[in-house]
Amino acid sequence: MLAGELYLADDPELAAEALRAALLSERFNASSAADPAERQKALVELVGEVGADVEVRPPLRVDYGYRISIGAGTFINYGAVLADVARITIGADVQIGPNVQLLTPTHPIEPEPRRAKWEAAKPIVVGDNVWLGGGVIVCPGVTIGENTVVGAGAVVTRDLPANVVAVGNPARVTREI
User: Fold this and answer.
1) Strand order, beta sheet including 124-126
2) Residue 52 included in any domain
């Protein structure tokens, strides 16, 4: 799975890992804004790596949680979906708007393996100081370079270089920063 090879998601070990993530997600998502220490504790237990001064606002949806790395000073707004079938690496000082989706899973194009429930995944990397506007979707295997800004609602299907602004579906670079 992490190597990008096909796997069956209903594997008992994966099902147990997904259940763990679901239970920890419930705890994080039910945490009170009045108790930020408890919310942070739940996040650290759910996510693989959490840097200093990270803020994630619930609700947060993950597949497994432990395949996610969030760099120091990062802010993730409401409604994030981090489908971490493969590794998701979020750099330091990243700003992620509401309802952003980072989606690592892929499925075969051929109908028979897809019908048989085979899946694969490709990692996502978001560089330091990136801003992803509200509703951005980042597709499997994409790397976004540092300091890049992705406009609201964009669908990022290919790598984006550092220091650019990208918008649209599919996302296109409109200018350099």
Assistant:
1) 49-50, 68-70, 88-90, 124-126, 143-144
2) yes
> 32 CB contacts (<8 Å, ≥6 apart)?
38, 39
- What separation in angstroms does the CA of 164 have from each of 32, 130, 150? 37, 10, 8
**Closest alpha carbon to 56 in 68, 38, 74:** 74
CA torsion sign, 55 to 136 to 157 to 121? positive
37: left (phi over 0), alpha (psi -120 to 50) or beta: alpha
Give me the active site residues, please: 107
pLDDT in tens, 61-70: 999 999 999 9
In 81-119, which positions are buried (b, 16+ CB within 10 angstroms) versus exposed (e)? bbbbbbbbbbbbbbbbbebbbbbbbbeeeeeeeeeeebb
Tally of structural domains, the chain: 1
pTM recorded for the entire structure:
0.95
Residues 120-156 have pLDDT tens digits of 999 999 999 999 999 999 999 999 999 999 999 999 9
- 162 domain residue, yes or no: yes
Judge whether 2 lies within some domain: no
Establish if 1 belongs to a structural domain: no
Which tokens belong to 21? 């993530």
